[in-house]
Amino acid sequence: MTPAARISAAIEVLDDLIQRRRPASDALKDWGLSRRFAGSKDRAAIASLVYDALRRRASSAFAMAAETPRALVLGMLAGLRGLSAEEIALLCSGENHAPMPLDAEEWGRLAAFSLDGAPDWIGADVPEWLWPAFAAGFGRDAVGEGQALAGRAPIDIRANRLKSSRDALMADLSHASPEPGAWSPDALRFQPGHDGRGPSLQAEPSFFAGGFEIQDEGSQLVTLLAGAQPGQTVIDLCAGAGGKTLALAALMGNQGRLFATDLDSRRLAPLHERLARSGATNVEIRIPRSRGHEPLIDLAGQVDLALVDAPCTGSGTWRRNPDAKWRVRPGALAERVKDQAEVLARAARLLKPGGRIAYITCSMLPDENDEAIRAFLARHAGFAAVPLTQVLASTEGDFGLLARFATEFGLQLSPHRTGTDGFYLACTQRIA
Ligand SMILES: C[S@@+](CC[C@H](N)C(=O)[O-])C[C@H]1O[C@@H](n2cnc3c(N)ncnc32)[C@H](O)[C@@H]1O
């Protein structure tokens, strides 16, 4: 397919996902199934166009004064990919499956591409209804935070200390031009190409050998700061597919006991294979047998560290999942806040005196970050917040600079601040 035909295809896919309110991945899959002529490079390029258009959905619609799929794609080509009106006009020839030629209004709007007079939520490409909750945490930086979340994300890997090292992987993957991560000692970063695609790291022999996992550097950092020590009893209550479980096992050097569970046992399924590849030997997966069943009840009073990687809106990962930004519905935030309170209360019941909860979200919204901790502390008199300075000082390495990103109870990472996904971490300790 020509670059112009790919643009037409992206407009078609966007039309489908907007009309039928379906996930971008479903619309892309269906498009591919009914267009067998499209090769894998075409599909990847079309997906990249669709995701880029979703990243800048509000600002493109404003600059183009239209919210049609065509306006969103053309606006994104100017606003995100930096194409001039002339370059876009050349692509829109109307021939050989290319989009129809630009009209005078489109030409003028692409040439000017202006967000002058746009409200902040549009400048930030954050849904209007969510803007007050989002802006609450960032004050004057809120628009810049939103803009950084509307960009593309790099691909980060975590060197698995049980099998490899960052230096060894730096050499092994040199053909893909890795850079060391700025914060996590185990992170390597790969920048996406002009078309938004990154290297196929999961096809690397060192990946199959367990040398690394794909994991955003922010996710690595909050897991490191959670403070798991070799020999401890650690639980990962919201383990999902185990991204943080694997990192915890490596940080513990396979010493001590690590238990992984999740409310949704199906989500734990990939963890079995990932554990085998990683060489982690101190992990036990516990499956809840029924609603309300506590699969870790035998550990009550023995747990040193409970990692609560809580269910949340995922607003910190909008760079990787821009579809989710526009699909999140009013009401979802209140539901997640309820889930967060529930899982924090569970963690509290299992800790031993002096034990800690490391509460983590991939959210940018104070309601599910500091406010969740404030509510937890109000309900649990026997717990106190661990000051961030203490958390940073007790982690091996030099993390003092992160104190700049302190919130009332914890730490907020973001693409704008740390070049990572948006993650929040707060630690609390059982004092009675
Ligand atoms: C952010 S995801 C976990 C991601 C995972 N820790 C990782 O690093 O790959 C949150 C998980 O919490 C689970 N969850 C939701 N409510 C829960 C609850 N009340 N107790 C335990 N897990 C819960 C969800 O099924 C989901 O897998």
UniProtKB/TrEMBL annotation:
Which CDD domains does its entry note? Answer: AdoMet_MTases
Q: Where are the transmembrane segments?
A: none
Q: Where is the SAM-dependent MTase RsmB/NOP-type domain?
A: 145-431
From the Swiss-Prot or TrEMBL record, give the protein name: MFS transporter
Per its UniProt record, what InterPro entries does this chain match? Answer: MeTrfase_RsmB-F_NOP2_cat (IPR049560), MeTrfase_RsmB-F_NOP2_dom (IPR001678), RCMT (IPR023267), SAM-dependent_MTases_sf (IPR029063)
Matching SUPFAM superfamilies, A to Z? S-adenosyl-L-methionine-dependent methyltransferases
**Might you name a Gene Ontology BP term for this protein?**
RNA methylation
Q: Which residues form the active site?
A: 362
- Record keyword Transferase present: yes
A molecular-function term among this protein's GO annotations: RNA binding
Positions of S-adenosyl-L-methionine binding: 262, 309
Q: Which UniProt keywords apply?
A: Methyltransferase, RNA-binding, S-adenosyl-L-methionine, Transferase
Q: Does the keyword Nuclease apply?
A: no
Q: Which Pfam families match?
A: Methyltr_RsmB-F
Q: Per the similarity annotation, which family is this?
A: Belongs to the class I-like SAM-binding methyltransferase superfamily. RsmB/NOP family.
Organism listed in the record: Bosea vaviloviae
Q: Which domain of life is it from?
A: Bacteria
